[in-house]
Amino acid sequence: MDFEAELRKLELVPIRLIGRDALRCVHLVYNIQYGTVAAKIFQSEKCDQKEFDAAFHLFIDKGVNQFVLQYLQLREGVHNKTILMQYANLGSLDSIVKQPQIQLPTNMLRVIMRQTLQGIKFIHNSGLVHRNIKSNNILLHSPPGSGRVYAKISDFGFAKKEDPETGVKFLEGF
């Protein structure tokens, strides 16, 4: 499938490929409404919109949190679904962890861990359980000109909703 052509049909301007696997790919795109964002595109028959539903539920119930990646919109094409989300401009924590020549100072590791735990707390307070926290799903973002780096939890594909009164868990992600 020509993902770039599919993105153009949705009035998104592909800038570059960020990542790809067997089920999906993520492109950096320009969108007239949101500016530069990430677009995760799936073939419709290989996924459903449960990841978006879980993340969108989080923002409807609790609002935006600086330590959770913001999901903006779900767009449906003829043969695919595309999730528009905030772009984390420094990539994943995994890309740093796998480079032995980069040694993060202890104080930076503490900050990343604290921010990740604050993001998890926010997710749990909304009644969701992420179920897939790993270095690939911790994205790093530095707002231009801020001089700061924020850890952002992403990928709600395995999230479950928990009823706080009964403790019963309902599957949210795929």
From TrEMBL:
**Keywords, ordered alphabetically:** ATP-binding, Kinase, Nucleotide-binding, Serine/threonine-protein kinase, Transferase
**SMART domains, sorted:** S_TKc (SM00220)
The yes or no answer to whether the keyword Amino-acid biosynthesis is present is no
Catalytically driven reaction(s) = L-seryl-[protein] + ATP = O-phospho-L-seryl-[protein] + ADP + H(+); L-threonyl-[protein] + ATP = O-phospho-L-threonyl-[protein] + ADP + H(+)
Q: Which domain of life is it from?
A: Eukaryota
Protein EC: 2.7.11.1
Domain Protein kinase, residue spans = 12-174
A molecular function GO annotation: ATP binding
Show the GO cellular component annotation of the record: cytoplasm
Q: Is Heme one of the keywords?
A: no
InterPro entries from the UniProt entry: Kinase-like_dom_sf, Prot_kinase_dom, Ser_Thr_kinase
- The protein's name in its UniProt record: non-specific serine/threonine protein kinase
Q: Which organism encodes this protein? A: Streblomastix strix
